[in-house]
Amino acid sequence: MPESSPSKIVVDARDVEKSFGQGANRLHVLKKVNLQARTGEILMLVGPSGCGKTTLLSAIAGTLKVDGGKIEVFGKELTKMSGGALTKFRAENIGFIFQQFNLIPTLSIAENVGIPLLIQGVSSGKALARSREALDRVGLGDRWKERPNKLSGGQQQRVAIARALVHEPPLVICDEPTAALDSKNGEIVLDLFSQVARTANRAVIIVTHDNRIFSYADRIARMDDGEIVEVRERPPGEKPHFVHEHAL
Amino acid sequence: MIGLALKMLFGDTAKYLMLVAGLFFATFLIVQQASVFCGLMRWTTATLKNVAAPIYVVESEVDQVNETNPLRDTDVSRVRSVSAIRWAMPLYSGIQRVRLDDGSFKTIQLIGIDGASLAGGPGAMVSGNLEDLRLPNTVVIDELATERLAQDKAHPIQIGDRFEINDIEARVVGICKAMRSFTGGPYVWTTYERALQYTPPSRKMLSAVIAAPIEGMSPEEAADEIQRQTGLRAYVNRGFGPSSRDVEDEKGKSFGDFNTSTVWWYVKNTGIPFSFGTTVVIGFIVGVAIACQTFYAFVLDNLKHLGALKAMGMSNFRLSIMLIFQAATVGIIGFGIGLAATSGFAMGAIQNQQPPFYMPWQIPVVAFLVIQLICMLAALMGIIRLSLYEPAMVFRA
Amino acid sequence: MNLFLKLLRYGSIALALFGFYAIVAVSRLQAQKETPPPGEPPVPPPQKPFKESVAATGILESLSENVAIGVPVPGLVVELPVKVNDPVKAGQTLFKLDDRDLQAEKLSTSAQQEISKAQIAVSEAQLAKLQSQLERLTSVTDARAISKDDLENRRRDVAVAEAQLSAAKAQLAASETAMKRIALLIDRLTVRAPRDGHVLQVNVRAGEYAATSPKAAAMIIGDTDRLQVRADVDEQNAIRIRSGQKAFGYLKGDPTVTFPLEFVRVEPYIIPKVSLTGASTERVDTRVLQVIYSLTRPESPPLYVGQQVDVFIEAPERHTKP
Question: What is the pLDDT at residue B181?
């Protein structure tokens, strides 16, 4: 866990270009996008569907090759790394939280949480112990034997967060973490994220269009049509809080 | 990692059972049919097993033991005159008819052996004395004959019972163990001279000369020497398999081992191998079809999770290992269950000597490799599908 | 995971493990059911006495061959003074055939002889009578007392009587010869041993009809003190046979009995193989060279004429190019 001072830039994407398809069907998804993320902060990528925010997230996570530009994460240039090196890089540095949680239904939640450790080559016994600790932190330590489908959506997402954090990655990437959650669970999850970013000094990048959670973001990058149209810092003094629907 | 793979596999019970069932079916078809084929082919060499002399000398154009062109009586002496031979004895082998008391006929495989040395006699007696064959009008029968030649099941033939071979009396003085013949007739031993009396006369009656090499000489060398000295065809009786004496010439392949030659004759001249071969191939195809399709469906089902693993930094290599391990596991389990079913069949077949069953160790080994090949094919399809799956796709739920 | 699914999972694994175990058991059972490979023949076949030898089947005969006694004419056997195994001297009666027809003929011939003798007496008396009459006439000196014709007639009568006497004597001689002939014929019906030896086989009994060409000879005699072996060598091996080659014989059925053989001769004429088993089904299908060896009858075990022997003759192998 890199112990670094606040506001250290760990993700630096410059002039990132990406397009899908060929010829007339060619779709220019990312147009010279620049984005930075810092440790200790939650960065939210927001925007309408198809604006390219997920593509940008994929590129930053090292799961997608971009056509142009440069992405540096922890000083390493992802755009110049080979596939194998990228895979290894992802395993060591990035925690993933998916919209559908993507927990493997046939494994217990502790086993699911342990997967990133297994990928790193930790023995299964140690992995289990550490994943139980991680589950403790998300408040599910006593249910480690159960299978994901026995849990509610929010609990599953907490399992997913435990999985993303179990190997203590410096960068956590979340794709629509609250899309499948009700407000109560959403709040619990976002509180967890804030805690992760602040106390462990990690960079958390969240792609979302869930405006209930915007206030948790230290910075919000708004995207539209492949470009970042606005980067807004959270006004000083504003407390992060969950905007409940009835309050809107 | 391995545990992860196994849990994923066993978690999907329906697909797991489907995979195992397909591979079980393929294994059973392949092993059982191949073994029945081997058993049937082995029956064709039953005479060679029951009269287990190291060397068989036959007429020069004879390819198989069940249909021999007879030799002249003095050929025994000619073979005996070869210095590489320790002993050589006459052998009569032919299918004869037995008349039972109720007038019905049964065919038997009549074996005539040298009355003095009793060379070529049965390997294991159940009751009675082989030496009693020297008494007049006596025969030694195998266990099958005790039922086959009996009037009814309740009264099997015993020592002292009589029947008629071509209207000449035969008295049973011994019961022995013997392998079943291809034609289904039980084996009946008697002396060579008496066998000639039981047999309708023809000009030449000596089916074969059985011989053994002198000390320190291999049957192969001795057989070569017999062929050189007498011009007769000498085969060794080692058991099925390639031999140093196999020759390939313009007339086709000829074998130095009589078992191989006999089996090859049946393979060449009958439709038996084609029939069994078809079933084995069907077993293979069924296995491939079910296993590949189910496994592919399994991979597709888990693609989302596998993609997540890929995104989380699991390399393609490790994912492939997982898939291969899963495929190999169902392969082993399906194969094992197939073996269990085959064993059930085999136990009955071996106890009853019917239907034919003989499983050389090569059959399960080759079947295992074939099943694993099927599994690897299935795994390969999954691996290809997975490698086409970009980890970024996991974000597009 | 409910119990049923667990059962399926572990059950399938257990079944698979059982399958592996079972197939090994099947393999074991199969190997156990395998008819054991017969080892050596129950009675060890004869050991070859020579490195390179020609094998032949032979039959024991008495030395100088067995004599199958023939019958001069077919007839009933009336007397059989010898038994099997009796030693016989040359000229000793072996058996007699029924000679009653000849004896009957002898009776009538001897009657004929008496008649001939009486005839001679009659003729002699007649001649004496005529001679005395002639003497009386010739003693009459008066020529007128007897006619010349009368005297001539008397002389002729004497000549006739003399001729009649010779005829009667010839008759007697003829009947005596007939007697001798019958005696010879009767003697012929007594079959005698042509030479010293033992009676090996008797195939006729008193009262049986002995034919001239029977399937088996009426009696076989031979010398059993010295035996000989007639070995049949396949004509294809004949080329390897030389006179004087050493040989060993083995009694068929007991390979422990072995005896050295002494070369006698090679039969110069190759003949069709004669059946040794004697079964009517056995056929002549090859020609053989016969080689004769002699042997001294061993003290023990007893050898019998007519026994089959396996003969190994020391003869170098033909070394043909493969």
Answer: 86
C166: number of Cβ within 10 Å: 11
Q: Could you write out the three-class secondary structure of A78-140? A: HHHCCHHHHHHHHHHHEEEECCCCCCCCCCCHHHHHHHHHHHHCCCHHHHHHHHHHHHHHCCC
Average pLDDT over residues B178-203: 87
Nearest to residue B332, comparing CAs of B33, B12, B1, B19?
A: B19
The SS3 of residue C53 is strand
Lowest mean pLDDT among A168-172, B107-111, B330-334, C208-212: C208-212
* Inter-chain residue contact A90 with B11, CB threshold 8 Å: no
Using CA coordinates, name the residue in chain B closest to A208: B395
Q: Do C41 and B20 touch (CB under 8 A)?
A: no
The ipTM estimated for the assembled molecules is 0.85
Name the least confident of B229-233, B242-246, B269-273, B339-343: B242-246
Q: Residue C305 has which token pair?
A: 């004429």
User: Taking Cα atoms as reference points, which of A154, A160, A108 lies closest to residue A134?
Assistant: A160
Contact, A92 vs A120, CB < 8 A?
A: yes
Contact A58 B395 (CB under 8 A): yes
The residues facing A19 across adjacent strands are A28
Per CB-CB distance under 8 Å, the chain B contacts of A205 are: none
Q: How many CB pairs under 8 A join B and C?
A: 184
> Do C23 and B358 count as a contact with CB atoms less than 8 A apart?
no
**Phi, psi for A134 (deg, rounded to 5):** -60, -40
Average pLDDT, chain A: 84
In sequence order, what are the residues at sequence separation of 6 or more whose Cβ sits closer than 8 angstroms to the Cβ of residue B154? none
pLDDT at residue number C320: 57
Q: Retrieve residue B360's tokens.
A: 């050389």
Return left, alpha or beta for C79; rule: phi > 0 is left, psi -120 to 50 is alpha, else beta. beta
Residues C266-292: tens digit of each pLDDT: 888 887 776 554 444 455 567 888 899
Give pLDDT, residue C322.
44
The closest CB to that of A102, out of B3, B304, B316, belongs to B304
Helices (H), chain B: 2-11, 13-43, 46-50, 75-80, 143-148, 192-198, 219-230, 258-269, 272-301, 303-311, 316-352, 362-387
Least confident of A20-24, B17-21, B325-329: A20-24
Conformational region of residue B188, where left means phi above 0, alpha means psi within -120 to 50, and beta covers everything else:
beta
d(CA B325, CA B322): 5
Are B123 and C236 a contacting pair at CB < 8 A? no
Q: Across residues B259-270, what is the average pLDDT?
A: 89
Instruction: Tell me the chain B residues in contact with residue A175 when contact means C-beta distances shorter than 8 Å.
Output: 395, 397
Q: What is the nearest CA distance from B314 to chain A, expressed in angstroms?
A: 6
Task: Name the superfamily (CATH) of residues A40-65+82-247.
Answer: P-loop containing nucleotide triphosphate hydrolases (3.40.50.300)
Given a contact cutoff of 8 angstroms between Cβ atoms, the answer to whether C222 and C305 are in contact is yes
Q: What pLDDT sits at residue B364?
A: 93
Question: Which of A54, A91, A100 is nearest residue B312 as measured by Cβ atoms?
Answer: A91
Cβ <8 Å between A119 and B309 = yes
Helix (H) or strand (E) holding A229: strand A227-233
d(CA A227, CA A224): 5
Residue to mutate among C29, C43, C47, C312, with most B CBs inside 10 A, is C43
Q: Is C196 exposed, middle or buried (0-12, 13-18, 19+ CB in 10 A)?
A: middle
- State yes or no: pLDDT of B180 exceeds 90: no
List residues bridging with C259 in a β-sheet: C249
Average pLDDT in chain B: 88
Cα separation, C106 vs C244, whole angstroms: 57
Reported as a single tens digit per residue, the pLDDT across A80-91 is 888 888 888 888
Q: Residue C276: its pLDDT value, please?
A: 52
Q: What pLDDT, on a 0 to 100 scale, did the predictor assign at position C1? A: 52
